[in-house]
TrEMBL record:
It comes from the Bacteria. This is Putative phosphodiesterase. GO terms for molecular function: hydrolase activity. Residues 19-213 form the Calcineurin-like phosphoesterase domain.
Length: 252
């Protein structure tokens, strides 16, 4: 009997992708998100929003986004400014939506496996491509004196720092999409270690915030091995790369 060759699963086209919106740094303003969701026809509303850091919520996150929580899922990664003050921290990490933090894990959202790496690289811990100063948050806390701890643990500022142990643990998983606050190397201020992370995860797309711009990376996609997209200040980009709302500084 002639053996038939197994067919590989078809690669999804942009048209096949679920409606997930990636949202650039909001820095305390959420009205544009609620308006974009509520003004969309019910059939065109996103299955989920993923906020790419620097939320700086003025109230607990579930209060800021109360108007849309019954219409779409909300997920996030933290940015460097989300630990600037106690309020910035608590309105995010102590909110009713704290469990929607994607940092350091892979979660299936609307059928898409999304990996998250929030925060930024800091020289006291790790500034690639240089070697790291400390491996993990636990090691950092053990190294500092009790007087330097915040709430008897990691200093608040470093609760938005990328630790090598978190990066390595995430790199051992598999995902379809990577969301980060920092940018990969296609951005002038990006990092090659995020290229490597996307490649190890096997992602087809990656999105980042932080720099408040949206640069054209298409010439870099082949080198990276995945599509990369920056989402500008208070911008919204769909999972297929369509710009739903331009960032406030795009094109400047």
């Amino acid at each position: 009997m002639k053996k038939t060759k197994a067919r590989s699963a078809p690669v999804p086209t942009a048209r096949d992708l679920p409606s997930i919106w990636l949202c650039g740094d909001v820095h305390g303003r959420f009205d544009h998100l609620t308006e974009a969701v509520l003004q969309s026809a019910p059939s065109q509303r996103p299955a989920a929003l993923v906020l790419l850091g620097d939320l700086q919520a003025q109230r607990p996150l579930e209060v800021e986004l109360a108007a849309i929580l019954e219409h779409t899922e909300v997920w996030f990664i933290p940015g460097n400014h989300d630990t600037d003050t106690d309020e910035d921290h608590d309105h995010l990490f102590c909110s009713a939506l704290a469990g929607r933090n994607l940092h350091g894990r892979v979660v299936e959202i609307a059928g898409v496996r999304i990996a998250g790496l929030g925060g930024v690289f800091r020289g006291q811990v790790w500034m690639p491509p240089g070697p790291h100063e400390v491996e993990s948050a636990r090691a950092y806390v053990a190294h500092i004196g009790r007087g330097n701890r915040w709430r008897d643990g990691l200093p608040r500022r470093h609760r938005s720092t990328i630790f090598p142990a978190e990066y390595q643990a995430l790199s051992r998983q598999r995902a379809d999409v990577l969301v980060t606050h920092e940018a990969p190397s296609c951005h002038p201020h990006g990092f090659a270690v995020l290229d490597a992370l996307g490649q190890r995860l096997g992602v087809r797309r990656a999105f980042h915030g932080h720099h408040h711009d949206q640069l054209d990376y298409q010439a870099e996609w082949s080198r990276l091995g995945f599509e990369a997209h920056g989402v500008g200040l208070r911008g919204i980009t769909a999972l297929d790369g369509r710009v739903i709302r331009p960032g406030e500084l795009d094109g400047r």
